[in-house]
Write a structure and sequence with these properties.
Layout (H helix, E strand, L loop, with lengths): L2 H29 L2 H13 L7 H14 L3 H13 L4 H15 L4 H17 L4
Helix pairs in contact: 1-6, 3-4, 3-5, 4-6, 5-6
Length: 127
C-alpha cells in the first residue's frame, strides 16, 4: 500500500467512526428509554458553558478519555476540540496531562490521539 493509499485509509477511519457513532446513537434513541435519554442530555449539558467554558470542558473530556483508554472517546473529543478551534499545541498540552496522570499505559492512546489529530486536520484540508 502506498503512503497516499494509507493516508486515505486512515482518513476513512475517522469518517467511519463518525458514521458508526451516528448510526449507533440513532438506534439507541429508537429505544426511547427515559433514563437513557436523560443520561444523553446530562452528557451534552456537561460540556456547555458554565463556570468553565466549553473549550476547557472538552479538554477535560479529552484528558479523561485518554486516561480511561477509550479511543472512541478520544476521537469524539478531538473532533469537538478541533470544531471549537483548539490548536494542536493546546491538544498536545492536554494529552501531556493525560500521560502524566495515567502513566505509560496511556502511550498507545497518545499515539492514537496524535494520529487522529493529523487525520481530522487532513480531512478538513488543514494539512
Amino acid at each position: 500500500m502506498s503512503h497516499l493509499e494509507q493516508t486515505q485509509a486512515d482518513t476513512n477511519r475517522i469518517e467511519a467512526f463518525r458514521e458508526r457513532r451516528q448510526q449507533h446513537n440513532e438506534r439507541i434513541f429508537e429505544i426511547d428509554h427515559l433514563g437513557i435519554k436523560r443520561f444523553f442530555r446530562l452528557d451534552s449539558a456537561a460540556y456547555e458553558d458554565g463556570a468553565l467554558d466549553s473549550r476547557t470542558k472538552e479538554l477535560l473530556g479529552l484528558v479523561a478519555s485518554a486516561v480511561l483508554r477509550c479511543d472512541d472517546c478520544v476521537d469524539y473529543h478531538l473532533d469537538q476540540c478541533i470544531d471549537i478551534g483548539l490548536t494542536d499545541e493546546e491538544l498536545y498540552d492536554a494529552l501531556n496531562v493525560a500521560l502524566v496522570v495515567g502513566g505509560s499505559i496511556v502511550i498507545p492512546h497518545l499515539r492514537h490521539a496524535v494520529e487522529s489529530i493529523d487525520l481530522i486536520r487532513a480531512g478538513r484540508g488543514e494539512r
